[in-house]
Amino acid sequence: MGASAGVGAQPLSEPLRSEGAAPAEAMKEPAPRGRERLFDRQDGPLDLSSLLENPRGFLPIPIVVTEPAVGYGGGAAGMFLRPRKEAGDEGWARPDISGIGAFATENGTMGAFAGDASRWMDGRLRTLVGAAAGEVNLDFYGLGSGLPSLDQKVRYSLQFAGAVAQVNWQLAPKSPWAIGMRYVFADVDPKLRDEPQPSGLADSARVKISAPTAILEYDTRDNVFTPTRGVYAETSWLASREALGSTDDFERFQQIVMGWQPLAHGVTLAARGSYAWSSDGTPFFLRPFVQLRGVPAMRYQGDQVASVEVEARWRFSGPWSGVVFAGGGTTRVTGDNFSATQNVGSGGFGFRYELARKFGLDVGIDVAHSPGTTAVYLVVGNGWFRP
What angle (nearest 5°) sits at the alpha carbon of residue 84, between those of residues 92 and 224? Predict the structure, then answer.
């Protein structure tokens, strides 16, 4: 569970796309019926905008898991979109979103989740709530006290249950700046899956996390699903405290910056940069790790982690787009008598289909590769989605 400065701020009320009818204009049209809800009225391709804006409509999402860290698997989720029609175009660009789903993978990982992100008071107040429970079987690295441990995996099973609640307040009407507070509570029971057990590591040590997080946010995206311009940035400082029910005191800082810039001939250039730091006492499964498409989760962990990923998206024919991306990450680990860094790069390609034009919602597939790993991702919105 988780979430900065930008340039070139764009008005939050600008249209979702440069082409096609604006949502405010579409509101005046007669409500579609039957098969009309599944196709675009302008040029006829498959388009679920009319279905999703209906209070009883939802987007069924097959969960296809190819994450190298947990193996192949699958599941299903439902996403409900509620456009804020009183806000005009912005109500479609930033709708209220709810979701629920469950998944399982071949290595025994399984889980269920539900969440909601809504806006109130003309969009100035934003709330996010969510809960999840399940079991995750992962390999962790760098848990020992020396350099060899950086490449030595330790297999843990994490049984977990947790919840998150967040409130953001926009500093002024139409302002890109917002401040907020997030609270995370989790109960995690890690158990070693290795036999014999690695020396010096506990077989089981239940961990409770009770952590408020201060947030500063900047957002000028023209769309939360598949942006074509704008900047999103989030600065967060988490402080977990025994006085609030945590097992240990620890802190974690994270900075995320993402930007999108339209170019000529239907090309959108995008980039994402992130930096994270964690203090002593941070549970091993919450230490920062490199998050790049194609890189196994938790493979590159450290006390400090930084990564950059760039992406180019080309809308070459109607609702169809092609995507190429590449990135790199680095970690730094400091022990009692050593300091070390690890670097990794990844890249890949994919395609997108604009499934709901009014919302600016694309879906597609990405194929990504890093040293020794190839993975396939089902993408809803974009690879860096933040509601």
Answer: 40
Cα separation, 294 vs 58, whole angstroms: 29
> Using CA atoms, how far apart are residues 115 and 79, in angstroms rounded to an integer?
10
- The amino acid sitting at 201 is L
Report the run of H or E that residue 91 belongs to, with start and end: helix 89-93
Q: Any residues with CB less than 8 A from the CB of 71 and at least 6 apart, and which?
A: 65, 105, 106, 107, 109
Q: What is the DSSP letter of 289?
A: B
Of the candidates 292, 297, 294, 306, the residue with the CA atom closest to the CA atom of residue 342: 306
Tell me whether the omega of the peptide bond preceding residue 227 falls within 30 degrees of 0, making it cis. Answer: no
Dihedral, CA of residue 80, residue 81, residue 86 and residue 87, to nearest 10: 140
Give the DSSP letter of residue 381: S
Residue 231 pairs in a beta bridge with 259
- Give the DSSP per-residue string, 50-89: HHHTSTT--EEEEEEE--TTT-SEEEEEEEEEE--GGGTH
Instruction: Tell me how far apart the alpha carbons of residues 178 and 172 are, in angstroms, rounded to a whole number.
Output: 8
Residue among 235, 234, 239, 262 at smallest CA distance from 249: 239
Q: DSSP letters of 20-32? A: S--HHHHTTSPPP
Q: Which residues pair with 364 in a beta bridge?
A: 352, 379
46 three-state secondary structure: strand
Quick check: 59 and 52 in contact, CB under 8 A?
A: yes
CA distances from 104 to 2, 59, 67, 134, 136 (A): 21, 20, 12, 9, 9
Name the pTM for this structure. 0.84
Work out whether strand 73-82 and strand 59-65 pair parallel, antiparallel, or are unpaired: antiparallel
For the stretch 325-377, pLDDT in tens is 999 999 998 876 778 899 999 999 999 999 998 899 999 999 999 998 998 99
